[in-house]
Amino acid sequence: MPPGPRGPLSRLPLPSLRVQKGLALANVIAQVGIMTTGVTVRVTASGLGCETWPQCNQDSFVPVPGAAPALHQSVEFGNRLLTFVLAAVAVALLLAVYRAGRRRGLKLLAWAMPAGILAQAVIGGITVLAGLAWWTVALHLLPSMILAWLAAVLFVRIGEDDAVPARRVLPRPMAWLTILSAVLLTGVLVTGTMVTGAGPHAGDARVEAADRLQLPIQWLVHFHAELMVGYLCLVVGLVLGLAALRAPGPAIRRCAILIGLIVAQAVLGITQYQLGVPELLVVLHVTLAGTITAVTGSLWAAGVIREKALA
């Protein structure tokens, strides 16, 4: 591994590969974790616990007693504070990648983390200022899924040897199947936000029915579920094809993990629908969606690999 750049960054300790991978893993966990706290804000009706942005209310950046219910202020403000933790992890990872002198592709992926977090902060502010209109909430969640995907790709790539040329290990038909599965996953996530937009959890009691998505939730749920079934079928087809071709690399193992997660998500989705969408199951459903997206990102990264770097 090269010694890294000269200049101010040279004063930082040289991060080992173990440290870099640890920061990359922490970044994946934090990206999924912020989705968990975000949906917790929604199901506890705390979305307007801080009623404006970037302040918590018109007079203060921190909660003011009596301005809103204490629980709602704590949940919403706590979610905002966790953004700084997420940003700290992303910046530490970026500095580690630069200090270690890693290849350009890793630097670009590392830059996507703080840039995406900044964009998410702005989108979150728009969501609050728009009074939690359903489409702004959807726009707030979907970039988090993209960041979880990229974070997983970065975690896989950071363990590779920069000096070894990349090689494609998936045959082209399998690669196209992977692309198609990513397209279907996008449809699953988008329709999932629409189900939430038409569902009972508006994020705050002050959100009017007119601000919700005016489509039959039963139709949306079935469309969302059918896309999930299609996505599952594609992943099953992918793992069978890889097994038949005896494809090298970790793709088969990641497919198997992904299939297990998708089945668990389907069971969870059916259960929460039958039980009237209880809050805890909604939190688990979104967390698992973020996890599935991250694992799908790692599967995508398994199509073109380098040899593992030595620690």
Task: Give an overview of the whole structure.
With 311 residues, the protein is mainly alpha-helical. It has one domain. The protein has eight helices and two strands. It has a two-stranded antiparallel sheet. It is flat, with a radius of gyration of 21 Å.
Q: Which short descriptors sum up this protein?
A:
mainly alpha; two-stranded antiparallel sheet; 2 strands; 311 residues; single chain; 1% strand; 68% helix; flat
Short overview:
Helix content is about 70%, strand content about 0%. With about 300 residues, the chain is mainly alpha-helical. Helix 1 (about 15-45) packs antiparallel against helix 4, helix 4 runs antiparallel to helix 5 and helix 7 runs antiparallel to helix 8 (about 280-300).
| Beta-strand content bin | under 5%
Q: What is the topology, as strand order, of the major beta sheet?
A: 1-2
Contiguous runs where pLDDT drops below 50 for at least 5 residues: none
Q: What is the subunit arrangement here?
A: single chain
Q: Give a quick account of the main beta sheet: strands, pairing sense, barrel closure.
A: 2 strands, antiparallel
* Distance linking N and C termini: 9 Å
**Spatial shape:** flat
Element pattern in H and E:
HHHHEHHHHE
What is the number of strand segments? Answer: 2
SS-derived structural category: mainly alpha
Overall average pLDDT: 88
Total domains: 1
